[in-house]
Automatic annotation (TrEMBL):
SUPFAM superfamilies: Nudix. GO terms for molecular function: hydrolase activity. This is RNA pyrophosphohydrolase. InterPro entries: Nudix_hydrolase, NUDIX_hydrolase-like_dom_sf, NUDIX_hydrolase_CS, NUDIX_hydrolase_dom, RppH. Accelerates the degradation of transcripts by removing pyrophosphate from the 5'-end of triphosphorylated RNA, leading to a more labile monophosphorylated state that can stimulate subsequent ribonuclease cleavage. Residues 10-154 form the Nudix hydrolase domain.
Length: 160
């Protein structure tokens, strides 16, 4: 079986959420499907016909249990940000259709309490969660997303 040339594949349309609590810390979850101790912010693909804001709010609820009524959208990154999958993952994720993701990122303020976080959702993605300092994010993520996270921090730097 030949693997596709990643350069020939499109990016998967997606949304990402930087969720801040009242102390200015960021929600991160530890993925269930990863053997490395990597943490990430909620993110996921957009459904056909779905706009980025709707996708972000849906992904947030699907991954964290936090309903849209408990967040306030503060900002959207001025441009979409993308990342490429490592060569060994191209062809394995997303049925081999994409080289990585192009994400619309949203900065959101969490209006609830820690008791409103419920990662045991219908289709859990995280084994654990915590609040992290924004500047810690690039060192917590899988290496191939480090630049993405640095770009997200730059996009929202004036609001952190």
């Amino acid at each position: 079986m030949t693997h596709p040339n990643p350069a020939d594949l499109p990016y998967r349309p997606a949304a990402g959420i930087m969720l801040l609590n009242h102390e200015g810390k960021v929600f991160v979850g530890q993925r269930l499907d990863s053997s490395v101790e990597a943490w990430q912010m909620p993110q996921g693909g957009m459904d056909p016909g779905e706009d980025a804001e709707t996708a972000a709010l849906r992904e947030l609820e699907e991954e964290t249990g936090i309903p849209a009524r408990l967040v306030e959208i503060v900002a959207r990154a001025a441009e979409d940000l993308d990342y490429d999958l490592p060569a060994d993952l191209v062809g394995k994720l997303w049925k081999g259709k994409y080289r990585g993701q192009r994400q619309a990122w949203f900065l959101m303020r969490f209006l609830g309490t820690d008791d409103d976080v419920a990662i045991q959702t219908a289709h859990p993605e995280f084994r654990a969660w915590k609040w992290a300092e924004p500047n810690e994010l690039p060192d917590m993520i899988v290496p191939f997303k480090k630049t993405l996270y640095e770009n997200v921090l730059r996009a929202f730097a004036d609001r952190l």
